[in-house]
Q: What sequence folds into this?
């Protein structure tokens, strides 16, 4: 099923999300882009709930690295 954008501001077609993000590099950039793509889904049912957004690996990376948070199979 095709979707049609109806917003006042057009979706940019001359730049990608990857090229728009210039501050991050390497694995941090990759994880950030995965996180953004999860939220930028056309259909609301394809987007994560607030726990899925808040407890994403990219947002929690520092806590995971320090051992303060441990990801389980369910995460």
A:
């Amino acid at each position: 099923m095709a979707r049609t954008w109806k917003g006042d501001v057009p979706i940019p077609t001359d730049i990608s999300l990857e090229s728009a993000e210039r501050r991050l590099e390497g694995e941090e950039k990759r994880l950030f882009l995965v996180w953004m793509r999860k939220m930028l889904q056309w259909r609301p049912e394809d987007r994560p709930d607030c726990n899925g957004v808040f407890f994403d690996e990219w947002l929690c990376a520092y806590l995971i690295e320090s051992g303060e948070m441990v990801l389980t199979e369910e995460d």
About this structure: Helices lie at 17-20, 26-39, 50-54, 61-66. The two ends are 31 Å apart (CA to CA). The chain has a mean pLDDT of 87. The longest helix spans residues 26-39.
